[in-house]
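Sequence in, structure out. Go.
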Amino acid sequence: MTALLAGAAVAGLAPSAGAHPHVWATVRSEIVFGPDHKITGIRQAWTFDEFYTAMAVQGLDTDGDGVYSKEELEPLAKVNVESLQEFEYFTYVRLAGDETLLPLKAPVDYWIEYDNTVLTLHFTLPLETPLGPRPKEVLVDVYDPSFFVAFGFAEKAPVKIAGEAAPGCTAEVDKPDPESVETAKALTESFFSQLGPDSNYGSQFAQTVTVKCAAQ
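Output:
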């Protein structure tokens, strides 16, 4: 598969004729803390654009009642999370000042909801080893290296803390760089077709969640 077709795996679609990106997803994340005040996982909610949604739901209303039930959407949720494994779930967790990515387990509690306009994929990524965000901050990026899918955090409530965080813990999202976004819009499909399979071009458009806890 070409890099573009590989990027399409998360969407379950062949790439369209337009330039990158081909799919847009609005991100809302929760940083999940356990009872010992350590981060145990990242809970994601990705809302896809209307164009992708319209194509993705075709044929899923198996009983023809005009309603897409959770059961009818379950196969789509399953193929999405299984395809995401190859791409590290487009979720990258690391400690501040360290480029080493922390390993994540396979998604749990995954499902899709449909509000008759857009699809939202929900899933939780457990950390292989629970992590305390002290003394170093914990950074979480969500992006597609190929920029086939354009991820952007929601303007309202983009990130929350869930579970039993210690007092003074916060999670904030960096604002996107407007200049980089405008630059990306001007790039042609031929530019992306020349990128190698290991290209990490999409990382420059990533918005970073910074989790930090005040010293006690």
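Check: The beta strands are 23-33, 39-48, 91-95, 108-114, 119-131, 138-142, 149-153, 159-163, 169-173, 208-213. The chain has one domain: 3-213.
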